[in-house]
Design goal:
By secondary structure, the chain is an alpha/beta fold. It has 2 domains: 213 residues, Rossmann fold (3-Layer(aba) Sandwich), CATH 3.40.50.720; 88 residues, Alpha-Beta Complex (UDP-galactose 4-epimerase, domain 1), CATH 3.90.25. A 7-stranded parallel sheet has the order 3-2-1-4-5-6-11, sandwiched between helices. Strands 7-10 form a two-stranded parallel sheet. α1 links the parallel β1 and β2. α1 runs parallel beside α2, α5 runs parallel beside α6 and α7 runs parallel beside α9. It starts with a strand and ends with a helix. The relative contact order is 0.15. The structure holds nicotinamide-adenine-dinucleotide (NAD) and UDP-4-deoxy-4-formamido-beta-L-arabinopyranose (WQD). Nicotinamide-adenine-dinucleotide (NAD) binds next to α1, α5 and β5.
């Protein structure tokens, strides 16, 4: 297949490009490099032997999107990663988030319809569930009011695709990621947060390497076994693999009534302290951390029911928590060596 990967120089996108190329698919990336760098293309080339084509432009520019689709005949599908993703920033700049995340998607949907590119895999998030009533959370769980404009863009995007798909003939898979962490085992690509990280794992590895003084553990008074919050952490390479399977499924699917939704997690929750312990185990280091107040807007605990992805996509996460933290640490050390 020939696949457009939007946001393909970003964290999850770059790992998915590697996976697509290693399965023999051709990739064209569109990215405006607002949160990634063109150097990722060379790194992907080192891993796979092929540097994917990169076109640098902003997907909110409708004419550029139409022009791109007009020039790339024979696309089999689109994996749409490109979006802003910082929850806290979205509260400060809500319109930036609505514009970037929703207008990009609208432009892509219209161009797909016009050029009869009819397979879409979309990056959604477990954030659409909020704090679920029961765990593990299934795809049937009611969606809750988003706690941030970012979260709201994911919910609206899902609805937009569901409204447009039957009219346009687009078949879509909406993938709800839980907490992606880790890096490619080669340590040639990984997560590159700009400035102070918001997410747990980059904060841990940056603290260990000496870029940050100490990790704050946000709350140890939750109703969980060790008092810290629980998430379903998933290796980014496992996540990448699911995208390839989703696209392969769409290419074989004769008909689809409405977009299919899949949770992507391991099906297990780990507490913040368990992640720290795993990091300390694989790195042999003691992490400097302190318990602080809860972070506003954080939920207590969530983990996924992944049986649907397993039965329909034939997908299952295989990496352990230690493999995730080890690969994240190897990536941080690689960055420090550059
Ligand atoms: P990322 O920021 O590393 O990658 C996104 C890429 O999109 C970046 O390279 C950025 O430059 C590009 N981009 C953004 N807006 C663009 C635009 N208007 N035009 C062209 N390119 C644009 O983020 P990521 O962690 O790889 O996330 C990928 C997707 O997965 C996003 O949609 C995100 O919301 C979603 N997601 C991420 C997580 C997570 O924890 N990382 C969890 C759930 C869902
Ligand atoms: C994980 C746990 C924190 C940092 C976010 C988005 C969500 C999705 C994934 C995109 C929590 C704790 C963190 C720190 C800490 N993204 N923590 N100290 O909040 O589960 O989800 O990323 O869709 O929408 O909200 O991930 O990595 O920020 O936090 O104690 O310095 O680590 O409280 O319990 P989160 P996270």
């Amino acid at each position: 297949m020939k696949i457009l990967v939007s946001g393909g120089t970003g964290y999850i996108g770059s790992h998915t490009v590697v996976e697509l190329q290693q399965k023999g698919h051709e990739v064209v990336i569109v990215d405006n490099l607002c949160n990634s760098s063109a150097g990722v293309i060379r790194q992907i080339g080192k891993i796979t032997g092929t540097e994917p084509l990169l076109e640098v432009f902003d997907l909110t520019d409708r004419h550029r999107v139409e022009d791109f689709f007009g020039r790339h005949a024979g696309l089999d599908g689109v994996i749409h990663f490109a979006a802003f993703k910082a929850v806290g920033e979205s509260v400060q700049k809500p319109l930036d988030y609505y514009r970037n995340n929703l207008v990009s998607l609208m432009n892509i949907l219209e161009a797909m319809h016009q050029q009869r590119v009819l397979h879409l895999v979309f990056s959604s998030s477990c954030t659409v569930y909020g704090q679920p009533e029961s765990l593990p959370v299934t795809e049937e769980a009611p969606l809750q009011k988003a706690l941030s404009p970012y979260g709201n863009t994911k919910r609206i995007s899902e609805e937009m695709i569901a409204d447009y798909a039957p009219l346009s003939g687009i078949k879509a898979v909406l993938l709800r990621y839980f907490n992606p962490i880790g890096a490619h085992p080669s340590a040639l690509i990984g997560e590159l947060p700009l400035g102070e990280p918001n997410n747990l794992l980059p904060y841990i590895t940056q603290t260990a390497i000496g870029k940050r003084a100490a990790l704050s553990v946000f709350g140890a008074d939750y109703n969980t076994p060790d008092g810290t919050a629980i998430r379903d952490y998933i290796h980014v390479c496992d996540l990448a693999n699911a995208h390839v399977l989703a696209m392969e499924r769409l290419s074989k699917l004769q008909q689809q009534q409405k977009p299919e939704v899949f949770n992507l997690g391991t099906g297990h929750g780990n507490s913040v302290l368990e992640v720290i312990q795993s990091f300390e185990r694989v790195s042999g280091l003691k992490l400097n951390y302190r318990i602080t107040d809860r972070r506003p807007g954080d939920i207590e605990q969530v983990w996924a029911d992944v049986s649907l992805a397993e039965s329909v996509l034939g997908w299952k996460a295989v990496s352990s928590l230690d493999e995730m933290t080890r690969s994240a640490w190897n990536w941080e050390k690689y960055l420090a060596s550059q």
